[in-house]
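Researcher: Quick test of sequence recovery. Tokens follow.
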């Protein structure tokens, strides 16, 4: 009887440890919210929470595509440039050419997907390492965006274009609704489709995935195209919110998006990660940025903190990988 009781107690402790480990990122988020609320009462106000949801929408939408890429042990440094390119392209078509906003939006998203396909071509068909291929894309399209806009901002959109970034359904911003829809789509792809199973398989062992019949090359094309699409959609939301296309609009966003994804538990070694964790990562980075602004922390100090967060997240991932091997 006593032995059975001890076994039951050990099992309960084991379940509790697994529960805590699986939701540690959410516990970190709750603690952070409490700390920032104590530091500044304005943090928890509904108006500020709505502001945070608007701010994190761009990170959240782009993070879905980045999640797919990192799951196959890849990287996409071109996300910031795609955001900028979509800003310039969409604004140019609406303001300079008088194209309907829906048509301009669809064409801009098609351009973003084509950039993703180009990344997939360089990584899959040519064999260029993802880091170099996407860095090359980043550099190319940063320069192209500047040349396209002549280094000048583009503004003067119709009021209807406020739909994606400024309007709200009740108190919930449309941008946050778009972000939630993207998370749901991402979760469905990973958990309910065979594509998702292929993503995990490629990240776990690319050679084994190839031998099992998975067309790894085609999957990489698809994954980078999806990354381009979600980055493009993030660019549309940003353009609608700021109402001005800048040739530096997405500069540095790839860093924040990677931090959100890795912090959310997606392994840089590939094959491990969930959208639910990425959601927590996005909320943490968004709340961290907002909280530091409310506390009058300088921009450079914010960069230091975000860099440390990324280093710690990757470090923990690498250490857990070593433990699994040993």
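Model:
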């Amino acid at each position: 009887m006593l032995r059975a009781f001890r076994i039951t107690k050990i099992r309960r402790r084991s379940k509790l440890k697994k529960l805590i480990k699986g939701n540690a990122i959410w516990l970190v988020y709750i603690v952070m919210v409490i700390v920032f609320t104590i530091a500044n009462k304005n943090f928890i106000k509904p108006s500020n929470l709505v502001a945070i949801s608007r701010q994190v929408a761009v990170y959240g939408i782009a993070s879905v595509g980045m999640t797919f890429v990192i799951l196959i042990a890849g990287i996409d440094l071109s996300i910031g440039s795609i955001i900028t390119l979509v800003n310039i392209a969409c604004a140019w078509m609406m303001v300079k050419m008088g194209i309907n906003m829906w048509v301009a939006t669809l064409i801009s998203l098609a351009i973003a997907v084509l950039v993703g396909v180009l990344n997939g071509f360089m990584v899959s068909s040519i064999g260029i390492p993802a880091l170099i291929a996407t860095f090359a894309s980043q550099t190319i399209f940063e320069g192209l965006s500047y040349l396209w806009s002549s280094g000048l901002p583009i503004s003067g959109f119709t009021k209807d274009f406020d739909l994606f970034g400024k309007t709200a359904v009740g108190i919930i911003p449309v941008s946050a609704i778009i972000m939630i829809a993207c998370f749901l789509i991402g979760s469905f792809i990973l958990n309910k489709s065979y594509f998702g199973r292929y993503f995990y398989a490629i990240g776990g062992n690319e050679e084994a995935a190839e031998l099992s019949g998975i067309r790894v090359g085609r999957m990489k094309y698809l994954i980078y195209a999806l990354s381009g699409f979600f980055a493009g959609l993030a660019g549309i939301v940003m353009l609608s919110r700021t109402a001005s296309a800048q040739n530096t609009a997405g500069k540095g966003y790839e860093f924040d998006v990677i931090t959100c994804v890795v912090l959310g538990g997606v392994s840089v070694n590939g094959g491990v990660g969930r959208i639910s964790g990425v959601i927590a990562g996005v909320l943490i980075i968004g709340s961290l940025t907002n909280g530091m602004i409310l506390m009058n922390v300088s921009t450079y100090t914010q960069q230091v903190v975000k860099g440390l967060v990324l280093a710690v997240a990757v470090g923990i991932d690498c250490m857990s990988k070593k433990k699994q091997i040993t």
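The two ends are 37 Å apart (CA to CA).
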